[in-house]
Amino acid sequence: MSTTRRNVLIGLGAIAAAGGAWALKDELAEDYGLLTSLDAAKSLGVAYIAEHGAPDLGALETLLGDGDPSERLVSQVREDFTAGRIVQIQGWFFSKTEADLCALVARG
Amino acid sequence: MGRFLDGRKQSGDVQADVCVIGGGAAGISAALELADGPRGVTLLEAGGDQLDPEYQELYRATQVGLRTDTLQHNRWRVFGGTTGHWGGWCRPFDPIDFEKRDWVPHSGWPFPREALDDAYRRASALCQIPFGYDAKAETPPSDQHLFESNDDLENMVFRVSPPTRFGTVYRSQLEAAKNVDVMLHASVVDFELDADKTHLVAVKVQPLGGTAFRVRAKHFVLAVGAVETARLLLNCTNQHAAGLGNEHDLVGRFFMQHLELRKIRWVAPSPDARGRMKRATVSEDARMAVRVAPHAQRKRQLLNQHFLVGAFADSRSGGVVEVMKKKYRRQRDLSAVDRAAHELALDVDGRSIRPRTMYFADMLERPEQAPNPDSRLTLDEERDALGLRRTVMNWRFTELDKRSLLDTQRLVAESLGKRALGRVRCWADGFDPLDPQEPLHGGHHHMGTARMHDDPKQGVCDAACRVHGVPNLWIAGSATFPTSGYANPTLTIVAMAVRVARAINAS
């Protein structure tokens, strides 16, 4: 697994439940039958690209960088909202960073 | 002692010092302010004591613009007027509503908000509510507020009247007034000017099923709501071909309503988020809401607007999917992206929450409507049972309305997202408020059709609410509002009626 790919998963985990990963079948998935989070991210990513075109993911890949990007990502999401860097996907408003992360998953 | 008379039994003309036309919130408030004064007052109410379908049918109008609720249902032709089904929500217009804003064409009242403060106090008393609208005073000081004072959104307060049914609550006061007569079943159908056509000398009253008569007076106060005000003035063509007060083709234009949108879905990831929102929306004796802060309106060139948070559901009450189904009504609305958005909000903002519970709320969004001369009332060729031409309603929004709604929804998303308080969905499915086919819900708040402006070329009446060119015809009510604010208009209607009556008392 490439560093970027691994860090994507870590990043998703960072903005997922504390200590967990999106693909984890935790009580959320068991109790409520929701999609696993990796599938959710892919769904959002596909819709994002369809509505807005393929984003430039360079900044995100830099942010993912080396090591655990968890805190960096969560912080960046907050900064996105503060700075108005948000995108709308099928009516939902997301931070640019979380939308890009989903696009990265969708790109595979 | 004041008398309650029946216009259907009236024989001969009536003489008064002041003739108040309309027995709703504005007309009754004006009469109360004039009560026990030196002038004899006759208040004419088109309806009776009870709703009558035959009378309600007189309101029927044609809609050619954005569709809205029918007048037969949202206006009440009865003593007490539409307060008979008023919800009771009260709040003065904000100071910014009175300002001339360079990004809002035709904005600006001819006086600042402070000029109405005293009348607002009297209006609050008439609406049986305390005069106080300070959000900080209504919430515990140490509490966690959803929005900070320097945020682009801020908490604000509505007072809720019992609600006051003006016809019931104030009937005895009017009966006790030595100088007030109230005549029911007395529809005004025409105005008569003097030879110079500059002074109103009488109104013609035509009771449904009765004999016509005239009421002569020195002052006339037209207090019949924004739609009927325009209709009556436009129907008065005997002495002014374009209608009374319509020399500059302004009567009926700038028709405004409060659009009510339930298009914002909010998902909150934690009890903390839910608790903050609850504290921002509920108080012991007031209803809290959220508005766009004036500095944000100026910075982003937005119209004024507020939000109310609807009832919550949470994922413990049957599981996320079941709750979402209820919230979204139809399973097919529950797209993969909807599901993913809920999950993302839970994961990002609720990452430390155990057990993981998702809270859902619908937000009611109610914006000010931008003044728009092309949003207007005109007359139909069809006439009602009293011989008056019916109303054609052409309710229209502008690009500013649309952009302001979109940008404000974005503002809500930003404000919640940066505090880890969830995600919102707005306006999916191609909703477009400029599309006449879009089913919209108005708040029954009709305004602006005889707007105030000191310049006769820009307003039907002056700052004192006297019709330009006819100084003894006063208009009391929401027809005179140059802008609509977001606040329910009844309190301001009452305040303006009080102001008109005080001006007559002082004249």
Explain what this protein looks like in three dimensions:
- The complex is a heterodimer of chains A (108) and B (507).
- In chain A, 62% of the residues lie in helices and 7% in strands.
- Chain A has 108 residues and is mainly alpha-helical.
- A two-stranded antiparallel sheet of chain A has the order 1-2.
- In chain A, a hairpin with a 2-residue loop joins strand 1 and strand 2.
- In chain A, helix 1 packs across helix 5 and helix 3 (37-52) crosses helix 6.
- The longest helix of chain A is centred in the middle third of the chain and has 16 residues, at 37-52.
- Chain A is globular and about 30 Å long.
- By secondary structure, chain B is of the alpha/beta class.
- Helices cover 26% and strands 22% of the residues of chain B.
- In chain B, the strands form four sheets. In chain B, strands 6, 7, 13, 14, 15, 16, 19 and 20 form an eight-stranded antiparallel β-sheet that branches. A seven-stranded mixed β-sheet of chain B has the order 1-8-4-3-12-22-21, covered by helices on one side.
- The two termini of chain B are 24 Å apart.
- Mean pLDDT of chain B is 87; it is low at 317-325 and 327-333.
Strand-helix topology:
The complex is a heterodimer of chains A (108) and B (507).
Chain A: H1 3-14, H2 27-32, H3 37-52, H4 58-64, H5 70-83, E1 86-89, E2 92-95, H6 96-107
Antiparallel strand pairs in A: 1-2
Chain B: E1 3-6, E2 14-15, E3 18-21, H1 25-34, E4 41-44, H2 53-56, E5 62-63, H3 71-74, E6 89-90, H4 95-98, H5 117-126, H6 135-138, E7 153-160, H7 166-169, H8 171-176, E8 180-184, E9 188-193, E10 200-205, E11 213-216, E12 219-222, H9 225-235, E13 259-268, H10 271-279, E14 287-292, H11 294-300, E15 305-314, H12 320-328, H13 336-349, E16 359-367, E17 376-383, E18 389-394, H14 399-417, E19 423-426, E20 441-442, E21 466-467, E22 470-475, H15 490-506
Parallel strand pairs in B: 1-8, 2-11, 3-4, 3-12, 4-8, 5-18, 12-22
Antiparallel strand pairs in B: 6-7, 7-14, 9-10, 10-11, 13-16, 13-19, 13-20, 14-15, 15-16, 17-18, 21-22
Helix pairs in contact in B: 1-15, 5-15
